[in-house]
Design a protein that fits this description.
The protein is mostly helical and 169 residues long. The chain is built from 9 helices and 2 strands; from the N terminus they run αααααααααββ.
């Protein structure tokens, strides 16, 4: 139902008024749902609580026409952590692919560490400081290199562990 409504687990937890840890354990099938929790989930999605105990998946018709979900969207649209589209927009891979790769920084060979420093020191990217670290940037660059034709890559130490990247010209 989360995917159908375009909600992240954080958004669902907030909207249904369930702790994030409990929401995660429920989603992963590692916790039973109490009648109280079922009531909260059912109220949020405007469904019968009993449906949550059936083995088949629940299909929601047009989630944005469900009053509680529409209200949740209206009240929280600015919170990037609540909605899958916004969470994706703020993913390290998406930010690199759509913005940073086109910066002059990527004209020359660049390491992950230099990109993190650039993000931290560039005013327009300050809001991304909390998600940009050497590890996340390194993984994202590897993903972009493997999945697109945007980057060139060189093995800095020739050991298959440390790479430098630059935008393809």
């Amino acid at each position: 139902m989360l995917e159908q409504a375009g909600l992240t687990i954080v958004g669902f937890s907030h909207g249904a008024n369930i702790s994030l840890n409990h929401a995660r354990t429920i989603k992963n099938g590692k916790a039973s749902i109490s009648s109280k929790t079922a009531g909260k989930i059912a109220d949020f999605f405007c469904i019968e609580a009993g449906l949550l105990f059936l083995p088949k998946a629940i299909k929601i018709k047009d989630p944005l026409n469900i009053p509680t979900i529409q209200k949740f969207y209206d009240e929280n649209i600015q919170n990037d952590k609540f909605f899958t589209v916004k969470a994706k927009e703020n993913s390290v891979t998406a930010i690199l692919k759509e913005k940073i790769i086109y910066e002059s920084l990527m004209d020359d060979w660049t390491r992950s560490k230099e990109i993190v420093t650039y993000v931290n020191e560039t005013k327009k990217y300050k809001k991304y400081n909390n998600i940009f670290n050497i590890r996340s940037v390194s993984k994202a660059l590897g993903r972009i290199y493997a999945e697109s034709n945007l980057l060139e890559r060189a093995d800095l130490r020739e050991n298959g562990k440390v790479f430098i990247y630059k935008r393809k010209q």
